[in-house]
Amino acid sequence: MKVDIIGDIHGCLEELKELFQELGYKWEGDIPVHPDGRIPVFLGDLTDRGPDSIGVIDLVYQMVASNKAKYVPGNHCNKLYRFFLGNKVKEQHGLETTTAEYRQLDSKRQKEVRHHFITLYEKAPLYLELPEVQAVVAHAGISEKLIGQSGKKVQTFVLYGDITGESHSDGRPVRRDWAQHYTGNRWIVYGHTPVRKPRVVNKTINIDTGCVFGNALTAFRLPEESLVSVPSKQPFVEEKFNYYDEG
Q1: How far, in Å, CA of 46 to CA of 68, rounded?
Q2: Burial class of residue 2 in the structure, from the number of CB atoms within 10 Å of its CB (0-12 exposed, 13-18 middle, 19+ buried)
Q3: Cβ atoms of residues 42 and 61 within 8 Å
Q4: pTM, two decimal places
Q5: Confidence class of residue 245 from pLDDT cuts 50, 70 and 90?
């Protein structure tokens, strides 16, 4: 088994298509397929903020439904899922861009997109263990002791990181740098927190290189342990990349 784990897309469909091209995928109808049978793994946050969240939902749903890809959800996916269920959620922090796209669709397409995303989300595991390539894929990461477990505590960790319950002055949750304490021998591949270049700590790697904030979209290939990135077409937002500089 060979996999290409893809960082947070956030509606950047053009960059995703370019990344597939860079990775050597060929289009078969509407789906990119690798001639060597490699499997793409999406690590969550497919939508919000970027220019084509609906297009990303369409593509990822088709790939996962046809067994050509795997997917784990991120916190933005969780919020969109709750929106589609009819729950009361605040349309902010990027969700408002996805819901605006959604409302521009006719009712038939709305029903289709809603059904596809709900199906995609409900069938997804909280995190993915890939023993064939000695890796675990989780949107915001996962601590060693939680691997193999499920439940609310695990869900909170994999969606939001190791949060303390406190908040920074700008409203962002305070998170512990869990990767510093990881001692396992499997790769933990995650995203969630934008970094200028992939961040390797122990045997963990953050591949959210902030495509929607103007940096790059990145894939981590296993078992090769190689990285492939394509540049973003979005405006660069420097302040989004300062998290790990705060000590």
Answers
A1: 17
A2: middle
A3: no
A4: 0.96
A5: low
